[in-house]
Amino acid sequence: MKAVSLEFRHVQRRYADLVAVRDLSFEVPAGNICVLVGPSGCGKTTSLKMVNRLIEPTGGQILVDGRDIMAQDPIELRRGIGYVIQQVGLLPHLTVGDNVAIVPRLLGWAAPRIKSRVEELLALVGLDPATYRDRFPSQLSGGERQRVGVARALAADPPLMLMDEPFGAVDPIVRERLQNELLRLQEQLAKTIVFVTHDIDEAIKMGDLVAVMDVGGVLAQFGPPREILANPASDFVGRFVGADRGLKRLSLSRVGDLDLQPPTDGFKPRPGQPLVGRRATLKDTLSQMLDADVSAAVVVDRNQKVLGIVTYDQIAAALHDGSTGSR
Amino acid sequence: MLDFGWMADHIDELAYRTIQHIWLAGIAVGIGFLISFALAVLAVRRRATYGPILAVSDILYTIPSLALFAALVSVTGITLLTVEIPLTMYTLVIFVRNIAAGFDNIPADVLEAANGLGFTGRQRLWRVEVPLAVPLIVAGLRLATVSTLALVTVTSILGDSFGGLGFFILEGYHRSFPTELYFGAVPSILLALAADLLLARLERRLTPWSRETVVADPTTLVRTSEI
What we know:
A: 14 helices; 36% helix; B: mainly alpha; MetI-like fold
């Protein structure tokens, strides 16, 4: 299903003695990943849960595809929005296949269609259907559970996905793999995704747009990651993104984005000179140069064929002319 | 010593009393379960009712059974109702606590995911909460069944029409005839054991997903030793 836009208009959520979200407005164009990031108590999860009405806003409007969610039946609304949470919440009494089939069943799909959709989705998230379909959640690793959680959220092909710290409970290696897989999936699926995290690095990596939130649901800054890193709107945002925001910006660009100096005829890398691929980030490349105490790295392809040279000056220039961060 | 000749002569009556025993216990367990299920759902859904519901089922349980049967005779006479009201009442304390604990033990993330996926309240109850509460519900069913099967013998004080296997126990006692006493007591123990095993097997069949045993919170559950 085609992705949809999402808009928050002066959304607020008050409790008797607490304001969780004061006045939140932003707009996510269809097909973008918008990351809500901020310290605990900033109302990011509350904001997310208002989109599928697990928490009802006490003021303002939330529009999905231009339609006010409060005018829609909450059950129908939720079935049309993918939902992934940190603890996954797989139903322990159902097999992997039946967990993935939950929303299609609620929507009354025919059995053969559900069966083929389950197989398609398990394959999509990298789980062999024949191996995993009949397992129970207790028989899976944390990473496998989270993949099933993503497959389940995608089951009815929702145009909008809500992900609440989806990779917060897995170890760093698995987390990075899941992040990369989600980005790869997103290239294919182009869903509108709202993604909550407290980790600024994850926000920068995953977001087309990042909403930095401060305590009380105040939107401190909203924009593409490179803009937030280059021009923090306030001291709070500056502190939150960290003193290493320059380096973080370098992690947004890859060697392949730069104009590489072509190698001269017969060029051979000197021993000890770092070799990097086109997909290497500028941050990793710089780190390797510093490590080897040289001012240039050699860019090679899969077969170690030399494609060009990237220099320290090029990396520094990329940081200053603001051209980094294209994705 | 036991009089095996007498036993052989009374096999037909043993069969009749066994069936009566199962029947009297079955009614109480069945009705008690339905009432308790409704009360437990109410207690879990409307948290304010949780305390009072448990308190009332606790208080009912403290009434001595003999006194209750005797008192009821003046209201409902010597009828099935007089037998079943106390039997049913005593199952409530076990069922309500176990069923409510079963619902309470469901991890919050599972319920949140179920809501987010778009289950209606009723679908969530029947397709998520009840299946996940099965281990504790069946634990309650086992306790209630065993305790009710034991209590049925006491109903023999209401006359020959009731009592199940308790009829032999009471009559054996009155006649100082141990054979008859054992003729009632041993089968009634075996009946309780058999029911317990059968229900344990039922639980395993209903919960293929649960590989670990459920660790029940001892403060919220009534154990067999207390009954």
